[in-house]
Amino acid sequence: MKSTCIVYIILPIIATFAIITLIPVQAVNQITVSLSYSPTSGPAPLPVNLSVNLAGIKYKSIEWSFGDGTPHDKSNHTSISHTYQTSGNFTGTVEVFAKDLTHGSQTFFVNVGAAAPTGVSSSSINNQTNAHQILEKLHSQSGAAIGQTLPITVVTDQLSYKQGDTVIIQGTIRDIQNQTAVAVIVRDSIKNLVSIAQPKLSSTGTFSITLKANGPLWKQAGNYTVIAQYGKYQNATTTFRYSGGNGQIIANTPVISDIFQINSGGQTYSVPYSIKGGTVKSMDVYADKLTLEVTIAATSDGSINIDLPRTLMDSKVQANLTADQKMTGVQINPNTQPDDKFIVMVSGNPVQFTETKDSNTRNLSIPFHASDTKIDIIGTQIVPEFGPIAALVLAIAIISIIAVSAKTGLRFTPKY
User: Is the distance from CB of 119 to CB of 181 less than 8 angstroms?
Assistant: First the structure.
């Protein structure tokens, strides 16, 4: 009788644990944002009209970011116009937050004043065609989504800095050419040269440099321009705000670089990061929320750069299946879908962040304030907390209990 009671207690617990373990990870509920904009390219200054269709959606807020360093538009307008003043490839985003706390975003790409790319003969270009239009044509011929990957991108880890700050500049090159170096140039608000460097290019086409906002070249306040050049024709531009300085050398905000080991799904994942203005206390995976939670101890306003392995977590555009496809059980591999934007919450509030990525990782640069303690990164897919080995062990345990009970005559239901 005592053995039967033990079975009554343990079996439901094991069965529940097994069910939770074997449940597939579901995608986060998101709004489908339909975005239209024009023109997609042209010489500077280039006014671009943008509009989102939110029919039937009760939205709480709409935020536009343009990718050129100008302030975000938080007017909640579904249609706006923005003028790009400098040349370069710009990646912008519109984010929509609904009243039911669901979220959606859409990325757009604008090419301003770029020259023709290498490998395209001048005879194929007329006065009405520019590099972005040629790129669109090449993408459409190859079947890839337009704007899915630009030839070159560049971003900074924050939108503004003060004297003594550390400026982290990152970028990507899509098509690597042998013996071709990438050049990164920084100019101040009156076009004076502040910095020039040739960072090392990784095998996957990413690059990164770190600058100190110190010394006689960092005096002028205003919008600073970062230009990344690769080869003869490819370039990308971004800007940041600098509050100005007195030309002296002051203490820099220290940057701590390390690797955090995350154990999840029966595997160990290495997550490289660098943080300025604080330290990282922990990183935890919450599979049921599709969330990576980062706990920090912030000593000042700062930022954190996290290299997320795609095998650990990712964010992909959710496939829209037809009713017939759903009925016939059609399955779409999420890894074949285009990348979508992560949702990042700092102390419970959504924040803007910058991103660079390659085929293996997605690097997020996330700003935070001195009072912040928790950063939540939310995607659409993440490894489960319990892997297939745990599920196998549970299955064997359940089968063993059934076999033993059948042999010994133990009952799973009370006998009245």
Answer: no
